[in-house]
Amino acid sequence: MRGRRIAWALGVCACSAATPPAVPDPPRTELTVWHSYRGDERLAFLATVSAYDATRPDLDVVLVAVPHDALPDKLGVAIPRGNGPDVFVFAHDRVGDWAQRSYLEPLGFLTDAALAERFYDETLSPLVYRGDLYGLPLAFKCLALYYDRTLVTEPARTTDALIAQTTALRARDPAVWGLGYEVDSLYFHQPFLDGFGGALYSDERDTLAFDSNEAAASLDFVRGLLVDHKVIPNEATSALVSSLFLKHSLAYVVSGPWFRAELAGHEGWGVAPLPIVSATGRPSRPFLGVEGLMLNRYSKHKTAAFELMTALTTDDAAFVRSQTGGQLVANRQVYLRSEVRDDPFAQVFRAQLGHSVALSNRPHMRRMWTPLKDALSRAIVHGEDPAAALRLARTRVEEGAP
After folding, report:
1. Are residues 334 and 229 in the same domain?
2. Fewer CB atoms inside 10 A, N or C side of the chain?
3. Is residue 13 in a domain?
4. What is the pLDDT of residues 300-340, one digit of tens each?
5. Residue 7 lies in a domain
6. What's the per-residue H, E or C state across the chain?
7. pTM for this model (two decimals)
8. Residues 19-41: what's their mean pLDDT?
């Protein structure tokens, strides 16, 4: 436009010294990223994206915040029509479903050993489905054991020690409870299920195994904590557990890294790995959830999108998410940096990572939650026969009933 104005003012249309036409800027590639981050996590993610965007004058990276619960449905509408984001952030448990629906681009042919080496194996394998890798891990979540230092001087390393400690506390002060978590939740029961030798599946073919004797024993054990030892409060909702812990009326809480945000008013809390199950000598292994970057199979800019994914998962980017966003990042080397190495919270969850079970990413898993919640409620809360409750749950899962 400027060149045209100069040409008009000087009358150079017939002059050999005419100003050459302006050369247009090369077209910029726009990459869209959907995420559900809020608060400090959003700020940290924005910082890492902005830092990369600034190094790439050929790119415009557009972040779109989508509510977590709405994101799967929005992807399900957009991607089959060739729309949606180039890259998105979500938990690994939907990988199997989305891979079967051809929503995701397999990454194995793009990923080399050096890139894979960035991450803990435990955080990479949940993003694999039927031999193909479908994402790069950002962060992980699992359960651990929070404790009140004013009530517990040394966290229990075994379930026998936990029972001994908490029953003694209850004897001294009946207003103090021992252990808090949602006993009818499969997610929170998983550490004891695995600790007693139980499992949801017996193989990779979705063969159900949760109605085993070992699984029934895990239900009996928690029923004993609730009824016989009386160390778990009745109707232990998440709100009640938080309230009791903040009032120093609860010694232990089984929860994940998100619980830390509720402890601003609590003085003297700590976190430790979940205890070994004394009856079996096995560790209590919670479910592991991995949050990853995934590539839309219908993206028109797959190469640029994958370059963005690799940039957002570097050790430096992960360190920003660790320090600014408070995430438990998937990168090995970050835990060797002094700020993270000297953080007991991060180190405890890193240790628990090694004793965890990846939540299944198979589509079949989505049918498990409600039937097993009912089974846990029947056996633990209402005292019904654990084996019968689990058999009923198996029937419901096999029939596909809600």
Report:
1. no
2. N
3. no
4. 999 999 999 999 999 999 999 999 999 999 999 999 999 99
5. no
6. CHHHHHHHHHCHHHCCCCCCCCCCCCCCEEEEEEECCCHHHHHHHHHHHHHHHHCCCCEEEEEEECCCCCHHHHHHHHHHHCCCCCEEEEEHHHHHHHHHCCCECCCCCCCCHHHHCCECHHHHHHHEECCEECCEEEEEECCEEEEECCCCCCCCCEHHHHHHHHHHHHHHCCCCEEEECCCCCHHHHHHHHHHCCCCCECCCCCCECCCCHHHHHHHHHHHHHHHHCCCCCCCCCHHHHHHHHHCCCEEEEEECHHHHHHCCCCCCEEEECCCEECCCCEECCCEEEEEEEEEECCCCCHHHHHHHHHHHCCHHHHHHHHHCCCCCECECHHHHCHHHHCCHHHHHHHHHHCCCEECCCCHHHHHCHHHHHHHHHHHHHCCCCHHHHHHHHHHHHHHCCC
7. 0.90
8. 82
